[in-house]
Amino acid sequence: MESSLLLQQIVNGIILGSVYSLIALGLTMIFGVMKISNFAHGDYSMVGAYVAVFLMAWLPGWLGWVGSILAAAAVVGVLGVVTERLVFRPLLTRWTDIDIIMVSIGLFILLENLAHLVFGATPRMLKDPFGGAVFDLGLFSTSQLRVFCLVFSCVAIAVLQLFLNRSRLGVAIRATSQNRFAAQLMGININTVYTLTFSLGAALAGVGGVLYGTLFAISPVMGAIPTQKAFVVTIMGGMGHMRGAILGGFILGVAETLGGNYLSMAYKNAIGFMILILVLLLRPSGLFGRRQ
Amino acid sequence: MEILRTKDLTKNFGGLCAVDKISFSLYAGEIVGLIGPNGAGKTTLINLLSGFFPPSSGRIVFEEQDVTGFKAHQLNELGVARTFQVVRVFNKLTVLENVLSAQVDRRQMGPWELVRRAILPPRGEHQRYQKECEAAERLLEFVGIAQYRDEPAENLPYALSKRLEIARALATNPTLLLLDEPSSGLNPRELDDQITIIKRINQQGISILIIEHVMKVIMNISHRLIVLQYGEKIAEGLPQEVYSDPQVVEAYLGGDAHAQH
Amino acid sequence: MDARSWRAIAPWAGLAALVVLPLVLRDRYLVHLLVMAGIFVILSSSWNLLAGYTGQLNLGHAAFYGIGAYTSALLAIKLGISPWLGLVLGGLVAACFGLLLGVPALRLSGPYLAITTIGFAEILRLVAMNWVDLTRGSLGLYGIPPLTPIPLPGGKSLTFTSEVSAYYVILVLCLLSLACCRRLVNSDFGISARSLRDDEMAAASVGIDVNAYKLAIFMLSAFFAGLAGAFFAHYQRLVSPDTLSTAETFTILTMVMLGGLGTLTGPVVGAVVLTFLAEGLRFVEDWVKMDVRLIIYGLLLILTILFMRGGMVGLFDRFRRPAAQPGRE
Ligand SMILES: Nc1ncnc2c1ncn2[C@@H]1O[C@H](COP(=O)(O)OP(=O)(O)O)[C@@H](O)[C@H]1O
Ligand SMILES: [Mg+2]
Q: Residue C324: is its pLDDT beyond 50?
């Protein structure tokens, strides 16, 4: 096996993983704060990707790119608030795991098929603002778009960390995630935190969706895959743990790319689930979660 | 006759030693009170004795058999029944069904046997069911909630749901009953009823280990007391002796907070 | 007649109605829909056993359905095993997989169990897609023989190629599986099974081996799904990896929630209503020229959970005895 090929695969894996991390971060945040397992999470990515499809048709090149990401964050953030208010909030006082999961499955079916109605079934690709330019480092090469993708997710993850650790709202979110009641006692307005968290979590998935769209085709049914990956990553990292989700994303990305190349392309999508089952059997609280 | 013996029973939660090298014996027909301040490890001890946690170290011997590491359902089958500090009745089942759930003869039944039973009714099932219903109703009468037999258990007032828990535990035919604060949250009248019930259970020959904060109850019914503090057994003996033990007064009654109610 | 004798007669009257129904309908397509509804009655009832009575959310139920279908179809095609035997074997193989999934599922709950079961079905779907030598991949298995004719005295035989004959077979299978579900819920076994949904710890404290019960129900649930799948294979005579898809599971769970989770009649009502609603919507789709069927499924699922807890059966109960809330002391 050529080592440069291996290196190439690892780089591809890291790029893919950065996107997984971004999407999974949104899921894990929402779970950590609200204990909602949202099986429609990947559909926020789908909507984000379509926002990019339409915006890039309007705005060419660079502008379209940056605009798409901002617009995806905004549109999906609003969609997140709407779905949270209409679908999840009414259940929060009398929730059971089953209700929450079921209602999110309903939302998944609804969003997927609405998208099918509105956008049609034809898969779309995002235009490459770099015109397919390649970044060649000798040992491996990768398109500039992918490098941008990686850089952007890393920046987004870093900004999110800063926000959560430094800003007052971010600290409120983390406090609520650790102990809802204590946070309430400290005078944190729980409803604001919920709305903000959900919207932020959805927006992360939306932005992740744009990046995902640079790697894969965009279609109304694409949402199921990011949902599955985000859950695998989230559980791998320990539900509700941000750092775990970030690392988990990269691990899954690399494992999938390597597995897809060296083991079996056909079973690439099964790799995540295999890891999931191993993790659940060996370390149920996640690779990075605290042991119980 | 000794029915329960523990030797150096220990339970650690991470760094915390909730139950620390406790050894004691319990004899047939006894009511033993288990007291100690909040967080002393009383509930944890009952959880160990009823198989909800495996002990970190130490042994449990029940009726001459080493039952260390047995699961909750296995211990129940051997004759250990319990109630919970915070009531855990089956909310969606009726009061009668709550007691019936405990009566099914399911000794040694693995998944295969259960599947077979689900598909093919065993012979005489109907008659047995009738008998179990009658027995269950007698238990409901015994604790005084027979008139609620067909209500969902979640509709029972708190005091009565505590009694339902006792009836359910009795339905498993225990030789040892572990009661975790059976009278917490009861008003004085309910308290008297509860004491009567516990005494009558004991008169049937069932040994009882009871966690209790209410002084009146503990002095009234227990033959012997065991005092825990920070997971350790600090005293054991007749109620009067224990209450005059300076170490106990210091540790447990010093603040006088618990002793009052 | 008084209420008591009505209650004694009603089931027999209902059964008689079900028996004559296809003869009255005289429409092959409608009978076909009834057959499909029957398959979904078994699927949703068996899913409900697990979710409704033990609280375990299995999102891979379609996998058992697919396993049953592939097992019976392959046995018939490759080994020439009688489809009648195939029905049972399909169920049994599914039950074995139920055991396989049930063991790790004992330790999982909520989202953990949900995603693990999705993964289980997804992996099996990939196997069905990619093990082309055995399954013909995404083309699916075709040319599956129908249920073999049963010879009758007098030289004639009973064939099972028509919709009507399939209807009677699925009717029997439905009744069998519903009878089993009913036993599971109403017998002494069932009381213990329902108790675990409320409180596993308390159940263990009264001697119920929680894991044994969960495994038993997991296997039964898988068995019936496999049985339905095997029947489907010989009825449709075509099985593709789509039978294993998560979308199929989502249809099942929509039926159960719509009908009423954790009730005996709910899944039956949900399966029948949704099967015929889907057909009705097909006309609507032709009319508005849009795919609205699944959108309505999604909406139904959301609205049921938000506003109609207990599903249609719960709604009906509320109408029948409006002040059923017993007073507190
Ligand atoms: N499942 C558990 N995990 C971790 N710590 C526990 C657990 N159960 C009890 N503890 C701890 O063990 C100690 C003893 O608790 P407990 O037995 O409930 O006390 P008591 O019943 O005497 O009030 C407490 O400090 C409690 O926090
Ligand atoms: Mg306690």
A: no
Pocket test for ligand 1, best of B10, B22, B38, B43 (most atoms within 8 A of CB): B43
Listed residue (C225, C312, C317) closest to C273, CA to CA: C312
Domain locations in chain B as residue ranges: 14-260
The answer to the question of residue A216 being in a domain is yes
Cα-flanking dihedrals φ and ψ of residue B59, to 5°?
Answer: -130, 155
Sequence spans of domains, chain C: 25-245
Does residue B17's CB lie within 6 angstroms of at least one atom of ligand 1?
A: no
Q: Look at residue B258 in the predicted model and tell me its pLDDT.
A: 47
pLDDT, tens digit, 9 for 90 and up, residues C155-209 = 777 777 787 788 888 999 999 999 888 888 877 777 888 888 888 899 999 988 8
- Pocket flag, ligand 1, residue B158 (CB < 6 Å): no
Within-domain flag for A163: yes
Question: Angle CA(B85)–CA(B87)–CA(B89) in degrees, nearest 5?
Answer: 140
Q: How many domains in chain A?
A: 1
Quick check: is A265 in a domain? no
Yes or no, beta carbons of B104 and C219 under 8 Å apart: no
For residues C299 and C307, is the Cβ–Cβ distance under 8 A? no
Residue A267 domain-assigned?
no
Residue A214's domain comprises: 18-227
Can you tell me which atom of ligand 1 is nearest the CA of B42? 22
Q: Which CATH number fits domain B14-260: 1.10.520.10, 3.40.50.10490, 3.40.50.300, 3.20.20.70?
A: 3.40.50.300
User: Span A199-207, mean pLDDT?
Assistant: 94
Closest CA to C220 of B106, B107, B112: B112
Q: Give the nearest partner residue to C207 out of B84, B110, B172, using CB atoms.
A: B172
User: Rounded to two decimals, what is the model's pTM?
Assistant: 0.88
Q: Could you tell me which chain C residue has the CA closest to the CA of A110? A: C298
Residue C61 to residues A102, A273, C146, Cα–Cα distance (Å): 14, 17, 24
Residue A9 has pLDDT above 50, yes or no: yes
Contact across the interface for A113 and C291, Cβ inside 8 Å: yes
Q: What is the mean pLDDT of chain A?
A: 86
Please identify, by atom number, the ligand 1 atom nearest to the C-alpha of residue B36: 22
pLDDT digits 0-9 by tens, C262-299: 888 999 999 999 999 988 888 888 887 777 888 989 99
Residues B103 and B171 sit within 8 Å (Cβ to Cβ): yes
Q: Whole-angstrom Cα distance, residue C311 to residue C319? A: 13
Q: How far is the C-alpha of B43 from the C-alpha of B75, rounded, in Å?
A: 17
